[in-house]
Write a structure and sequence with these properties.
By secondary structure, the chain is an alpha+beta fold. It is 37% helix and 28% strand. It has a single domain, classed as Glutaredoxin (3-Layer(aba) Sandwich), CATH 3.40.30. It starts with a strand and ends with a helix.
């Protein structure tokens, strides 16, 4: 499983979403088993990646399994229940 963050530099909501998810992953002992990657739409590369994945709002968090999108949260972080359910914790 992999969590992909689409964020913008200086966005408090984006930082809060990343911190919230990091807290849950740590709490559930998944920090080392769930890969994370972040793309900033403040950069050309981040904009291209967001465009290819049809990301229009930030923050957007995408959960992938074997490269396939299995969940997406737009303009917010997932709740602990949503994330736990998707990660089968």
């Amino acid at each position: 499983m992999k969590l992909v963050y689409f964020v913008k530099d200086g966005c408090d909501a984006c930082e809060n979403a990343k911190e919230k998810i990091a807290f849950f992953l740590d709490k559930w002992g998944l920090t080392d088993s769930i890969e994370t990657e972040a793309f900033s739409v403040s950069t050309p590369d981040g904009l291209v990646e967001a465009s290819m994945r049809e990301i229009a709002d930030i923050p957007t968090i995408v959960l992938e399994d074997a490269g396939d999108e299995v969940a997406r949260w737009t303009k917010r972080a997932p709740t602990s229940e949503e994330l736990r359910e998707r990660l089968a914790v």
